[in-house]
Amino acid sequence: MSSSPKTAIPTPKVPRPALRNRPLATVADADGNRRADLIRVSARLFREKGFDGTTIRDIADAVGMRSGSPFYHFKSKQEILASVMEEGLVAGLDATERIMASELPPREKFRVLVRSHLETVLAEGHDFIPVLLYEWRSLSPDLQAHIIDLKDRYDRLWQQILSQLKHVNLIRNDGAVVRLLLLGAINYSAQWYKPGKGLSIDQLADQTVEFFLSD
Amino acid sequence: MSSSPKTAIPTPKVPRPALRNRPLATVADADGNRRADLIRVSARLFREKGFDGTTIRDIADAVGMRSGSPFYHFKSKQEILASVMEEGLVAGLDATERIMASELPPREKFRVLVRSHLETVLAEGHDFIPVLLYEWRSLSPDLQAHIIDLKDRYDRLWQQILSQLKHVNLIRNDGAVVRLLLLGAINYSAQWYKPGKGLSIDQLADQTVEFFLSD
DNA sequence: CCTACCGATCGGTAGG
DNA sequence: CCTACCGATCGGTAGG
Questions:
Q1: Number of folded domains in chain B?
Q2: What is the CATH number of the domain that holds B150?
Q3: CB pair distance less than 8 Å for A184 and B180
Q4: How far is B170 from chain A (nearest CA, A)?
Q5: What's the pLDDT tens digit per position in A68-86?
């Protein structure tokens, strides 16, 4: 299933050096940050190998814990997944709302929004939104509810910018399907874009805007 | 992980009626069709629950076999996945090549291509291409090679129609990024489109063409 | 294609 | 957060 390298010490009678020699936590990252660490590495692993392809042991290894310890921070693997998605959406919403509130003219505002969303989907270390987009079915319905609320707010912001673009005749149609096609084109880039190869994210943003606007 | 209903007969001492009372295979679907059955139900399950979320037992149950029997037809679960993807691509390539060879004018040819691809991604029972698109990472590199060849042929056909659209000024740019954005918009619809709700596939094809062409 | 089974691994927990 | 462990389940196989 997964292909993580196995160091394989089934019943370690000797404490593993990596765990004992870790520097003491500073006051700053003393407490809540272990939870944040778990969310961050889980996002990366879920993106690389999928939710079902990632084991609690993969996650624990990646932060230097033993396999039972993530459950001190989260009730279940499902709750880690929900936290990953929430983290991504909250950050994305914040960035998007900031741009929407700016005084930029519609065309430029749109370009900045597209670049921001592309970054959220493509930039290295930004694994939260891709997990949201492509591991959605793995989240149990009761945990989906809260995430859906956030997602709806995100969609409403994009519907707003489309409406503004239409008012200045930069697009012909600002319906929901157009939003889905546009965001689909952007979101799907997570499947083919390789950071550092070919276009930069900035260049891709420009091409996407050109592709989409009837100039 | 998975949520398949469990009939749970751990060590059945009595033959299960469902297996014994199945009608005898006709000559027509005598042999190769058990393999085809496995591919078809696997495609559906892989799409619904993902490759890692689907067990050999899920697949065997769905075609009325016992859990060890799929391995009579396939060497491994991986090979089932590869067969699902190959089946989808061969059928998709055939349809696409047929349309490309037609005498339709560029705009109409494009519309038919978009509709054909949308069907391949959205229509009920068409689970092969979505599995290709969204379970790619689960396929081992040695099995990926053959599929990549087919995929490249598919991409080349789309690059051709874009080039034709540009020659008649229906699009401004026919580069590879444009192809990726267009097919991304279409492919991502597999994530939000619900058959029988809202737009028909035909209507969505029209909207996609309008969205994409600079009229 | 079934029977019967294997070794490995999984998510999660009790008790500290 | 670790130790030690559990029951369940997994992909796959030998032998028919």
A1: 1
A2: 1.10.357.10
A3: no
A4: 12
A5: 999 999 999 999 999 999 9
